[in-house]
Specification:
Elements (H helix, E strand, L loop, with lengths): L4 H6 L4 H20 L8 H9 L4 H11 L4 E4 L6 H6 L3 E4 L8 H5 L8 H11 L4 H5 L2 E5 L3 H10 L5 E4 L7 H22 L5 H24 L9 H11 L4 H20 L11 E6 L8 H7 L4 E6 L4 H4 L10 H13 L10 H13 L4 E7 L3 H16 L4 E6 L6 H13 L2
Parallel strand pairs: 1-2, 1-3, 3-4, 5-6, 5-7, 7-8
Helix pairs in contact: 3-12, 7-9, 10-16, 11-13, 14-19
The structure holds Double cubane cluster.
Length: about 425
């Protein structure tokens, strides 16, 4: 990391605070990840990306900026990367998963707010995240109340463009969302000075679909028994998906999948055959939030699927590639993105259908509902999720947590007891 100091100074990073942050990560990563047995060789690329998290990719982004590209930071899986890339900009997902940034966020935000929002706000305000420092603009959205209001604070430090995400899915909202995508396209065009052409949009739709297909392929392999890769490793890959170069990322995931295919042929896995299979559903887990996966997988069970935005919600549903005009392509994008089922919508019954389908497909023994503290939409929706699962006699446990380690032991005790009774 040390050879990136020039880069960090160039990005106006607070070096002393940043050193404090960087001092934590290597040991944490070693404990959680490198302690795993029999990891696939294909994980080496993702290890490298994360071990050089504030160096490798930010350096590339600065080089791209020096060539005239704009960097666009996003916070939600409803913001279409395809439009960003088609306008010749680069999209990076910026959600914060580190407790390190929470106290900085709490200087301007209430304490009783979800840690994800406090963390990304602290990351920006403390000038300790090169991804924020590289960004030319942030795209916010009107999802939950906390995010909706935080843009009014963050916009003192950087330009924020807010997309008006509808909260229902009637025909009129599909039209509204299509209109929002057109407005975003206009905004991006004025940012980059480049008009989005049919060819550019068609090729970026293809590029992001290929990334989704690679992730889908990886998830399909987790359906095997024994499972050929840990949930922790897949979570890491999903987190990296948000900021890595999409084409390189897709290629690396496919190389890993080739290796996993071979493992499966030999009947090799990372857990014992018939280890209990857990699905996690709920709020996203931004990097480096590995807490729950680590607890589950050091308690004898395997996480085989995540119905979250750092899981299936990120890659399920492809954009229809049959569009030839810009209008058709934007309509296809609007349809694909509104098919995502976030608890910010009402009603959101399709999410429950998704969970039931995934339980079946991944042969899940038990479900853990994961809720980031103070996330009201997912906390309230849990009632209906639990009811639907109980009707089918599927065991479910709710874990509500923040980014601290204060509750780790208590969660471990509850998770162990849950796995024991499966
Ligand atoms: S599509 S889950 S990425 S909004 S956890 S900040 S909801 S209080 S992150 Fe999300 Fe888009 Fe929905 Fe996905 Fe608010 Fe809840 Fe915090 Fe959240």
């Amino acid at each position: 990391m040390s050879n990136y100091y020039e880069l960090w100074k160039y990005l106006d990073i607070d070096i002393d605070r940043h050193d404090e942050l960087m001092a934590i990560l290597p040991d944490f990563f070693k404990d959680v990840y490198l302690s795993q047995k029999n990891r696939p060789e294909g994980m080496n690329y993702f290890n490298l990306v994360v071990s050089s998290i504030h160096g490798l990719r930010p350096k590339e982004l600065v080089e791209l900026r020096n060539k005239g590209k704009k960097v666009v930071g996003t916070f939600c899986v409803y913001v279409p990367d395809e439009l960003v890339f088609a306008a010749n900009a680069v999209s990076i997902g910026l959600c914060g998963g580190s407790q390190f940034w929470v106290p900085d966020g709490e200087k301007v935000l209430p304490k009783n707010l979800c840690p994800l929002i406090k963390s990304f706000t602290g990351a920006k305000l403390s000038k300790t995240c090169p991804f924020f420092q590289c960004s030319d603009i942030l795209i916010g959205e009107t999802t939950c109340d906390g995010k909706k209001k935080v843009w009014e604070i963050l916009n003192k430090s950087i330009e924020i463009y807010v997309m008006n995400l509808p909260q229902m899915k009637r025909e009129q909202e599909y039209k509204e969302w299509e209109n929002e995508l057109n407005l975003l396209k206009n905004k991006l065009e004025s940012l980059t000075g480049i008009k989005v052409s049919n060819d550019m949009l068609a090729s970026s739709i293809k590029m992001i679909n290929n990334k989704r297909k690679a992730l889908k392929r990886l998830y399909e392999l987790r359906k095997q028994n024994p499972v050929p890769i840990s949930g922790k490793d897949v979570l890491l890959i999903s987190q990296i998906a948000f900021y890595d170069d999409p084409e390189r990322f897709t290629q690396k995931v496919n190389v890993l999948c080739d290796e996993l295919d071979e493992r499966i042929k030999k009947g090799e896995g990372v857990f014992e055959k018939d280890a209990k299979r857990i699905l996690i559903t709920g709020t996203p887990m931004a990097l480096p939030n590995w807490k729950l996966h680590h607890i589950v997988e050091t308690s004898g069970a395997a996480v085989v699927c995540e119905e979250t935005c750092t899981g299936t919600r990120y890659f399920e549903n492809l954009v229809n590639e049959n569009g030839t005009t810009l209008d058709e392509m934007i309509k296809n994008l609007a349809e694909r993105y509104l098919e995502t089922n976030c608890a910010c919508f009402t009603p959101n019954t399709k999410r429950i259908e998704d969970i039931l389908r995934l339980i079946n497909e991944y042969k899940v023994d038990g479900v853990i509902g994961y809720n980031l503290q103070f996330c009201t939409p997912y906390a309230v929706e849990y009632y209906n999720v639990k009811k639907a699962l109980e009707e089918k006699n599927i065991p479910i446990l709710l874990i509500e947590s923040d980014y601290t380690e204060n509750d780790t032991q208590q969660i471990k005790t509850r998770v162990e007891a849950f796995i024991e009774m499966l």
